[in-house]
Amino acid sequence: MAVSDPFNGVMGAFAILAALTYYFVHSLDTGSHRVQVILGLFLAGGVGNFLSRLTAGAVTDFIAFSFWPSFNLADIYLTAAAFLMIVFYGKITATHG
Question: Which pLDDT belongs to residue 80?
Answer without folding.
Answer: 92
